[in-house]
Amino acid sequence: MESATTPFDFTYCPSRHGTGSFKWGSWDHRFTNPGSDEPNCNNSNNNNNNNKDAGIEAEKVIPMWVADMDVCSPACVADALAQRAAHPVYGYTAPSQAMRKNLISWLNRKHHWQDGATSHPVQNDWLMFFPGVVAGVNIVLRALSMQAQKEREKAAEPCIDKLLGDVVVSVPAYPPFLFSPELHNQQLLAVPLARDGKTGEFSTDWKLVDAALAKLPPASAQRPRTFILCNPHNPSGRVFTRDELREVADYCERNNFYVISDEIWADLVMPPAAGRQAPQHIPFACVCSPALLQRTVTLMAPSKTFNVPGLGCSIAIVPDPQLRQLLMQGEKGIVPHPNLMGYVAAETAWGNPQSEQWLDGLLQLLADNRTLLRDTIHRWERVAGLSDGEPVFCEPEATYLAWFNAAVLLRRLGRDDLVDSKKGLAEELADRVGVGLSDGAEFADAGWLRINFGCPSATLAEALKRLDKVFGSRAK
Question: What kind and span of H or E run contains 296?
Fold first, then answer.
């Protein structure tokens, strides 16, 4: 709720029940299981108006899985949508020049695309518009497969290789990155990220990438290679440094990769945690050589930043005109254009100063929630006797997602039954304590859990109170 006295009130979210919310509606039929692990939060004691407004009921699951936020979008965006909805014709719509201008200005101000000797200012004709980042990933892979098939048909000798490409993805990874390659007859190479034993931070292990590539034939027009980069990283929340991105760029150029850089979380870099340097999002394209830039597609959207994912509008920044033509062929006949409300929201969000002020307030909320989450998980580590070992929590620098090794905690707490459950760890927790989290198995890292803390602090506190029934004490 926003008012003249509290322009950006992140303590309130209206109930999302009955709105068709995928995040909330998927749990409406689920109830917490009475028993020793039942949350101690009955209706008579739950008088928190913020929780009531958010739709939290003591006997129902709090969903903290799907990556949208339980906060109101900027009022300026809501006003622009209402104004456009008042016009009773909703025809096919093209992206306006104002939206393009606002986007380029946003990229320059927020992410410094125009700065530095090696960066590449975004040009208007580089921009393509898709209904979502996942659609963008699949358009790129489909286009490359189509091109590889044409190259094979032109070849003098028939190709007996059935695969049309190879895709390297660092895991844990956003699930669509893991299943998309197969949809386009390409091979997935899921390479585990290395993890720092002191900080818990994830980074690329190039020796493992080398080992994966060593099993493949050389990259060619008939079997191209693609590296999918996610920065900031989902699910860990890491913001990769300039040096790390240069390593990615150098490696991809040496090995003739195309690069899909998912930068949908770029705007959600939080203020630094205590004792840590301030992270900065650096566009991958700004560290590329001119040659690699021609094989790079950057995907972004206003959806995560301004909480408008249901409006379906994302952008692809594609510097190479031949690659743009290839992507146009890849989307032909199967991918619709973004809808007009998505364009309206994007134009306003990137161009109205109020949305930028709203974002500043949101980032502070997320930083405060991160602190609450970190302190709680560190307390669970102490209860489990893990305070001097490798941290189970990967403290995020960006996004509103946190990633922690629940299996290690639970086994030390004597709760092996949860870890070994055939239903899955996230399902067990939803049943026992009424919190719906994302299961690490879906990210190719079983035993870990992802928690969405993009919500009022009272909602997060209630969820952690419920989880404390399992993680906050040893099994009896």
Answer: strand 296-300
Q: In sequence order, which residues have a C-beta less than 8 Å from that of residue 384 and are 6 or more positions away?
A: 408, 409, 412, 413, 474
Judge contact between 118 and 191, C-beta under 8 A: no
Distances (CA, A) of 165 to 142, 213, 230, 251, 253: 10, 12, 20, 18, 17
Q: Which of 166, 120, 140 is nearest to 261 (CA)?
A: 140
Give Cβ neighbours of residue 47 (< 8 Å, ≥ 6 apart): none
Model-level pTM greater than 0.90?
A: yes
SS3 220: strand
Give the DSSP per-residue string, 221-279: TTB-EEEEEESS-TTT-----HHHHHHHHHHHHHTTEEEEEE-TTTT-BPPPPTTSPPP
Question: Could you tell me which residues come within 8 angstroms of residue 476 by beta carbon, excluding any fewer than 6 positions away?
Answer: none
Q: Residue 158: count other Cβ atoms within 10 Å of its Cβ.
A: 7
Residue 309 to residue 264: CA distance in whole angstroms: 11
Q: What is the pLDDT of residues 100-141, one digit of tens each?
A: 999 999 999 999 887 654 567 899 999 999 999 999 999 999
Q: Cβ contacts of residue 124 below 8 Å, gap of 6+?
A: 100, 104
Q: Residue 253 pLDDT more than 60?
A: yes
Residue-wise pLDDT tens digits, 344-356: 999 999 999 999 9
Query: What pLDDT does 407 receive?
Result: 97
169-203, pLDDT tens digit by residue?
A: 999 999 999 999 999 999 999 999 999 888 888 99
CA distance 301 to 296: 17
Alpha carbon of 340 to those of 94, 256, 376, 399: distances in Å? 8, 38, 43, 26
Q: How far apart are CA 187 and CA 278, in angstroms?
A: 37
User: DSSP label at 459?
Assistant: H
Please give the C-alpha separations between residue 68 and each of 72, 180, 310, 452, in angstroms, as whole numbers: 11, 21, 9, 8
Q: Which helix (H) or strand (E) holds 188?
A: strand 187-192
pLDDT higher than threshold 50 for residue 246:
yes
